[in-house]
Specification:
- This protein has 150 residues and is mainly alpha-helical.
- The protein is built from eight helices and three strands, in the order ααααααααβββ.
- It has a three-stranded antiparallel sheet, with no helix packed on it.
- Helix 6 crosses helix 7.
Length: 150
């Protein structure tokens, strides 16, 4: 994979920077600092632009399911769960890779785990066998990208 362009921030520092005095005055909580930043039009625009960019590249399991026009009951049937378990799964912040794989496959996708490092990305080897500890034949190959080496 070729290296991408480094994004350039076109905002002027003096439009979005908070002085030390302003920081000290609002540093009691992250919410206070955020509220102070959002009172500035340029800072608010940058915040909303950044948040939008993050949201375009992230999705919850429920958003993935809805985007694929699938009901929780359908996912439940395809994964061997019941509908209430799928509902709980979509709200979890921590889950097994095997459960995530089943969910993604039920939506028609294929799960790939990639670790990103400054020198490149590596697709991780993950045992996909039923016990989670399969032979080398059950392991995904490592895909070294962006010039990183194994």
């Amino acid at each position: 994979m070729a290296k991408g362009r480094i994004p350039v921030d076109s905002a002027r520092v003096d439009e979005t920077e908070i002085s030390d005095e302003e920081y000290e005055a609002t540093a009691t909580s992250q919410g206070d600092l955020r509220a102070e930043l959002l009172t500035r039009p340029a800072a608010r625009a940058r915040y909303e632009q950044t948040l939008g960019e993050i949201n375009r590249h992230q999705a919850t399991l429920a958003q993935v399911r809805r985007a694929r026009a699938l009901a929780q009951a359908t996912i439940a049937e395809l994964t061997g769960m019941n509908q209430s378990e799928v509902s709980k799964l979509e709200r979890r912040s921590d889950l097994l890779i095997s459960t995530l794989r089943k969910f993604i496959e039920a939506t028609g996708g294929e799960l790939h785990l990639v670790a990103n490092y400054p020198e490149g990305s590596i697709e991780l080897c993950v045992p996909w066998g039923p016990s989670g500890a399969g032979d080398d034949d059950d392991v995904l190959p490592i895909d070294v990208r962006d010039g990183a080496s194994a």
